[in-house]
Amino acid sequence: MLGKKRIALVAHDNMKRDLAAWVDWNWEVLLKHHLICTGTTGKMVAQTLMDRRGNEHGRFDITFLKSGPLGGDQQLGAMIAEGEVDTLIFFWDPMMAQPHDVDVKALMRLATVYNVPMAINRSTADFLIASPFFEGEYVREVKDYRSYIERSLKG
Q: Model confidence at 14, in pLDDT bands (50, 70, 90)?
């Protein structure tokens, strides 16, 4: 991972205000990186950054995906599998079942499989962004799954 990270930001509906507050608190650091956001979370992140920057539209690097339940979680999962995400910050709501829980679980599974640093709440996001690895280069080890891919399926 180079100094400029590709940071995925996702939040369930009940956690969007918490993520917006976190983005507002860390806006100066986040503006140095490429942000990837699902649906409504992306609009909220962009608005927070525009408000913070005095409405200087277009002054930050952000990719908008579809809403999570409409395929955004799967788009993000594909990006993780292709090595296009360096960090996942996902403020998920542990108190409410989501209609797309299977997609959320798959997204978190892929982040684990590909050893992507993942924060699931404000505390872990704070620790992640405060790490010396966040601003510098970091070599993330990804397990070699070649033996799994090449395994024999004969009985």
A: very high
Active-site residue, from 73, 86, 126, 144: 73
Taking only the tens place, the pLDDT of each residue in 62-91 is: 999 999 889 999 999 999 999 999 999 999
Q: How far is CA 71 from CA 23, 66, 124, 126, 127, in A?
A: 23, 6, 26, 28, 29
DSSP string, 78-103: HHHHTT--SEEEEE--TTS--TTHHH
Instruction: For residue 95, give every residue at least 6 positions away whose Cβ sits within 8 Å of its Cβ, in sequence order, or none.
Output: 14
For residue 137, give the nearest of 90, 86, 80 by alpha carbon: 86
Quick check: is 73 catalytic? yes
Name residue, tokens 């940071």: 7
Cα dihedral 38→46→86→25 (10° resolution): -120
* Local confidence band at 147 (pLDDT 50, 70, 90 cut-offs): confident
8 A C-beta contact, residue 13 and residue 20: no
